[in-house]
Amino acid sequence: GIQVEQSPPDLILQEGANSTLRCNFSDSVNNLQWFHQNPWGQLINLFYIPSGTKQNGRLSATTVATERYSLLYISSSQTTDSGVYFCAVGYDQAGTALIFGKGTTLSVSS
Amino acid sequence: EAQVTQNPRYLITVTGKKLTVTCSQNMNHEYMSWYRQDPGLGLRQIYYSMNVEVTDKGDVPEGYKVSRKEKRNFPLILESPSPNQTSLYFCASRTLGTTNEKLFFGSGTQLSVL
User: In terms of C-beta density within 10 A (0-12 exposed, 13-18 middle, 19 or more buried), how is residue A62 classed?
Assistant: First the structure.
């Protein structure tokens, strides 16, 4: 089955720093989403981005489907950005079988 | 407010005692799904449903049952829980057939089976 690899596994930043999280996938996908799991366990959808680039405030994401990777950029990080960031991909027509990566754990300190 | 509601938030039970975790969404989504999250393994899909009375197995369905009698509800049933089912469970939903297929998650249910 499709493999999803996220890097780095852990990231420690000072408030105000920028970061780039990467998601590599082993096959063609028609669905790619980024999620943030906050320290209380809640999962929030950040982007639906099977291709192209999107921006939402300090966060942006780019997926290069032909090269099978996606990047999540966090600029001017804040302590509230801490948590785990997951990439998930879907490959079937309806996008029902989302496969999650193991996540990148981000810790932002003030 | 658009949301996916799971109950209970925390549950401690003993081996073999049947339990049900409820999930309800108010967004009229066709698709609903259950995931479990374990340390080092990320999220894995248990079951999903494309519509009422339509359910299918995900990656780790053993030991679980689901039903979809109404569009808004998708309960997860553990007929005979075992300690290896101790995990954090999430219900999720989304619409089908659009180009913006974001997946919305409930707040999670932390289950401990003793």
Answer: middle
Query: How far apart, in Å, are the Cα atoms of B61 and each of A33, B33, B36, B78?
Result: 23, 12, 10, 11
Burial of A28 (0-12, 13-18, 19+ CB in 10 A): exposed
Task: Determine how β-strand A83-90 pairs with β-strand A104-109.
Answer: antiparallel
**From A45, A94, A101, residue closest to B103, measured CB to CB:** A45
How far is Cα B71 from Cα A21, in angstroms, rounded to an integer?
Answer: 36
Selected residue with higher pLDDT from B98 and B32: B32
Nearest to A6 by CA among A19, B46, A14, A17: A19
Inter-chain CB proximity A45 and B58 less than 8 Å? no
Query: Does A48 contact B31 at a Cβ distance shorter than 8 Å?
Result: no
pLDDT tens digits for range A13-66: 999 999 999 999 999 988 899 999 999 999 999 999 999 999 999 999 999 999
